[in-house]
Amino acid sequence: MVTVEKVNDSQYLISLSPNSSLVGIYRIIFLSSITLVCGGIGVIFYFLGAALILPFAGLELSILFIAFYLSFKWSSKREKIYISEDIVKVERGVNKAEYSWKEFRTFTYFKIKKEKDKTIRLSFKSKGQDIVIGEFLNEDDKKILRDEITSIIESLNLKMY
Question: pTM of the full predicted structure?
Answer without folding.
Answer: 0.80
